[in-house]
Specification:
Elements: E1 20-25, E2 60-71, E3 80-86, H1 89-100, E4 104-109, E5 126-138, E6 142-160, E7 166-172, H2 181-201, H3 208-215, H4 219-229, H5 234-242, H6 246-298, H7 302-318, H8 322-336, H9 344-356, H10 370-380, H11 385-400, E8 408-412, H12 419-430, E9 434-438, H13 446-449, H14 462-470, E10 476-480, H15 493-501, E11 509-510, E12 517-518, E13 524-529, H16 537-541, E14 544-547, H17 553-571, E15 579-581, H18 583-592, H19 600-619, E16 625-627, H20 632-636, E17 654-661, E18 664-676, E19 681-684, H21 689-704, H22 706-709, H23 715-718, E20 719-724, H24 738-750, E21 758-760, E22 763-764, E23 770-771, H25 776-786, E24 790-794, H26 806-811, E25 813-817, H27 820-827, E26 867-868
Parallel strand pairs: 2-4, 8-13, 8-14, 9-10, 10-13, 15-16, 17-21, 19-20, 21-24, 24-25
Antiparallel strand pairs: 1-3, 2-7, 3-6, 4-5, 5-6, 6-7, 11-12, 17-18, 18-20, 22-23, 25-26
Helix pairs in contact: 2-3, 2-4, 2-6, 4-6, 5-6, 7-8, 8-9, 10-11, 10-12, 17-18, 17-19, 21-24, 24-27
């Protein structure tokens, strides 16, 4: 080491976590090393007269308890300063505990460097009690720690393994073995000479470490210092650490020095041969250049000349811009001047081949036949009106304005609704090539822009690779999972896509590998995602978002009959007449065996039916299998999902709400109870913060309308209200249950029953206003499946009724409201009130009480503005 600089020891292929960095000896050579855990000073053993009747049994001190840090490929000796990096979580916790409990820690080496969680059998028995002197935090949650070795110790047992490893250790004293002074001096002189030779041969050590060894007067210290600074394996260092008598340690180090000096001399000999060989290679290079010139004069180098000429011909045929053609010509001229044996030749050829393989001028002619395109879209997909309409608009504008630059469409929807297949159908409808790539999990900007060609293994980015595979400059490029990109220290791929999607920039997109501008303006980009929440705002602004909602049961029925079932029949080798599924059976599959937004699970269940049918056709030798709704349980087992049903009778404190989930809509019952108490409100059912706020807003509204609703004005003092959403294991959040909670609370406080055939959705304010919500299409489908007759929706959601399935519109009666008073007038029958009494909770009507008959929506009121709309 020079000036005390670190001495790195590089351990290849082991994944070292605590790797050796540097070491320094203690400032003094005296063995009086301080110890923070009730240990004694190590006695001086130098210059003691020899004796023959002595033993090697060490003197021991009392056992101590301290944190443990397992080292990989590193051994720490007493009286040495050394720093290393720590990355394992348990090791970091051990250091932190050591700093908080006297700065002492037990350092012991692992036997196998690959073990991540070492146990007793994975560690050496002998280690070093050390003091933590300094800790520095490094990037990436790593620590660099400086420790000072204090004394040797033996590992007794683990007292704790988690979260911080803690062990009992037995501190060891060096045995008082007597030896002759002249014998010790001779051994120390030999080590000094060998160590000087070793330092002169080793390129990783500086001459100043020789002074440390030359100044040492203690044989044990000299052995430890030499072993610490030698580039030997941790097993050899551990052998020195485990050897307690000083003279024996010195003998071990002597043998290791002799071995290492022999190895280093062989290395120097090999390096000398390599230098001589390098001079020979340079001479051969000049001779080859002369030979190349002679061959060129004799016409014997025509193969390389033909290759260069072929490249020039391809460049001229591309008719590129002047800048691009000049760049290619320069690279080609550079290739022509290179020696065939140069490694640069392969890099230049690969780059030229990649550039020339790009479709710089190749395009496909768009099919602008509107009727043909519509037939393709309708044949491939059922429904999806918005997507089909947008594609038809694009084709119409393209026919009128061919110079229009392509747009970027983003299809947003849950899994399985057909986003990627829609993009494939668009390519077929337009007669364009299809290029598809997935961005899920991409974290490196180079995946989009490519790598610099100077890097080993460089290649173009995914955009250029997809363009080359498409073979045309104007394909339909599908980028799946754009919402699942990540980013790290190597760059943000979403930022690279900003240039790709910008029509003002992508006409000259530069890939880092190709280094030439490529025109992407004629490419139609279609991205797919499940949500917009994880897409960066700047990137989302470059795209036109088209939402694909979940399919209704009727749409799934048509999709299964027209697309999924024929596909599975062909896949399983069945003819159309060999398996017949009744409509009732398909509906039962949809409602009882799948619960999803798309149709992936439905296709799997249809495949299961095909397998069952194939088995029966082969084993029973029949010609046809017919499946009705009642046969599914025998084929597929018990139905997996139970349908939503209305309550059997009108109840007090129970209201039916409508909820949206990722797999469609659901009927959600809300229960409320008012019991004697002190005015507390309990909200249960695994609710989110938004739903809790809606419940509190509903309570405030009720307190402000006590006189109108006939509620005890002091109910907030003498009643406890408990609102519960069943299925507590399912997380619930969102504002659309506000009016449902309010209806359940008013019913519980007044004793008025809630109509059983009414479901509702809407957000409530403190003053009773009903605000709009989302997911109306899925919610109304859930009401339709459950047999609800009337659905209450916010007035501002009236425009969303146009997107509802016609069958749902025909079956349901919709009432639009603006105020909570209109909701209560529609849902509660105050004529059948069961006045609540303190000490009990009215839960339902008497068995003899009639079920309330449906009532018409209330007339418009000045404060409520409630207007009924029957569709």
């Amino acid at each position: 080491m020079k000036g005390g600089s670190p001495t790195p020891i590089r351990l290849f292929g082991m994944g070292i976590e605590e790797s050796f960095m540097s070491n320094e000896p203690n400032a003094t050579n005296e063995p009086n090393v301080p110890n923070a855990t009730n240990t004694t000073n190590v006695p001086d053993t130098t210059n003691v007269p020899d004796a023959t009747n002595t033993t090697n049994v060490p003197n021991t001190l009392s056992a101590q308890r301290m944190p443990l840090l397992a080292l990989r490929g590193l051994t720490v000796f007493p009286k040495m300063l050394i720093h290393f990096d720590v990355g394992r979580e348990k090791s970091i916790r051990a250091l932190e505990e050591a700093m908080s409990t006297g700065q002492t820690i037990f350092l012991v080496a692992q036997r196998d460097l690959r073990v991540v969680e070492p146990d007793t059998e994975d560690l050496y028995e002998m280690g070093t009690i050390s003091r933590v002197c300094q800790i520095l935090r490094l990037p990436g949650d790593n620590l660099r720690v400086l420790v000072e070795g204090l004394s040797r110790a033996r590992l007794l047992r683990f007292t704790r393994r988690d979260p911080t490893p803690e062990v009992d250790v037995l501190q060891l004293e060096i045995p008082l073995r007597r030896y002759a002074a002249h014998r010790a001096e001779a051994a120390m002189r030999l080590v000094r000479d060998l160590f000087e030779t070793y330092v002169n041969l080793s390129p990783r050590l500086t001459p100043d470490v020789i002074m440390r060894v030359a100044e040492a007067t203690d044989p044990g210290y000299m052995a430890d210092y030499a072993a610490q600074n030698m580039a030997i394996s941790h097993e050899d260092k551990q052998a020195v650490l485990e050897c307690l008598p000083a003279m024996e340690r010195l003998e071990k180090v002597t043998g290791q020095l002799l071995h290492e000096i022999e190895i280093l001399e062989l290395e120097h000999e090999i390096q000398g041969k390599l230098h001589r060989q390098l001079g020979k290679n340079q001479r051969e290079y000049y001779l080859r250049e002369q030979m190349k010139t002679i061959q060129s004069e004799l016409g014997e180098h025509e193969d390389i000349a033909d290759e260069i000429a072929n490249y020039r011909k391809q460049i001229k045929a591309l008719s590129l811009a002047a800048e691009s053609e000049e760049k290619l010509t320069q690279e080609l001229n550079r290739l022509s001047r290179m020696s065939p044996a140069s490694p640069e030749v392969a890099v230049a050829r690969t780059w030229l081949d990649s550039v020339l393989a790009m479709p710089w001028v190749k395009t496909t002619r768009d099919s602008l036949d509107m009727r043909s395109a519509r037939r393709v879209l309708d044949r491939d997909h059922y429904g999806l009106g918005k997507v089909k309409e947008r594609v038809m608009e694009f084709l119409a504008v393209k026919a009128l304005a061919p110079q229009l630059k392509s747009q970027v469409l983003c299809l947003i929807g849950p899994p399985g609704v057909g986003k990627t297949s829609v993009a494939q159908s668009v390519a077929r409808a337009m007669g364009r090539k299809l290029a598809r790539l997935s961005l899920g999990g991409v974290r490196d900007e180079a995946d989009i822009r490519g790598h610099r060609k100077t890097y080993i293994g460089a290649m173009p980015g995914r955009i250029m690779n997809a363009m080359r595979q498409a073979g045309a400059r104007n394909p339909v490029m599908v980028l799946d999972e754009v919402d699942k990109m990540g980013h790290d220290f190597r760059g943000d791929p979403a930022a690279a896509l900003l240039e790709v999607f910008d029509p003002e920039q992508n006409h000259a997109f530069r890939d880092h590998y190709l280094e030439l501008p490529f025109d992407l303006s004629d490419t139609l980009f279609i991205t797919t995602a499940n949500t917009t929440e994880t897409i960066p705002r700047a990137l989302l602004d470059r795209m036109e978002v088209i939402e694909l909602g979940s399919y209704t049961d009727e749409e799934k029925l048509h999709i299964a009959k027209k697309h999924l079932l024929p596909k599975q029949l062909a896949r399983h080798g069945l003819k159309r007449g060999q398996l017949r599924l009744a409509d009732g059976a398909v509906r039962e599959l949809i409602s009882g065996y799948t619960r999803e937004s798309g149709v992936r699970n439905l296709e799997r269940e249809l495949a299961a039916c095909c397998r069952k049918a194939a088995r029966r056709l082969v084993s029973e030798e029949i010609t046809r299998v017919s499946v009705k709704a009642g046969d599914l349980e025998e084929m597929l087992g018990v139905r997996k999902y139970k349908p939503d049903h209305l309550r059997g009778k009108a109840e007090i404190g129970v209201a039916s709400g409508l909820a949206w989930t990722q797999v469609g809509g659901e009927l959600l019952e809300v229960e409320a109870g008012a019991v004697e108490g002190t005015g507390k409100i309990d909200l249960t059912g695994n609710l989110g913060e938004v739903m809790k706020e809606s419940a509190r807003a509903a309570l405030t509204y009720i307190r402000g309308r006590c006189g109108t609703l006939g509620v005890d004005p002091d109910f907030h003092k003498n009643r406890d209200i408990h609102v519960h959403f069943p299925e507590g294991a399912t997380p619930k959040d969102g504002p659309s249950a506000g009016i449902t909670v309010a209806v359940a609370m008013v019913s519980a406080l007044t004793g008025a029953p809630v109509r059983r055939d009414v479901a509702m959705t809407g957000e409530i304010t403190l003053r009773g206003r009903v605000l709009p919500v989302g997911g109306l299409r899925e919610k109304t489908m859930a009401a339709y499946r459950a047999g609800v007759g009337t659905v209450i929706i916010p007035r501002e959601n009236e425009k969303d009724l146009a997107d509802i399935d016609p069958a749902v519109k025909k079956a349901l009666r919709f009432i639009t409201v603006e105020h909570m008073d209109a909701v209560l007038a529609t849902t509660l029958d105050f004529a059948l009130c069961v006045p609540p009494k303190l000490g009990r909770m009215a839960s339902s009507l008497p068995q003899s009480a009639p079920v309330p008959t449906p009532i018409s929506p209330p007339p418009p009121m000045e404060s409520e503005g409630g207007v009924g709309l029957h569709i």
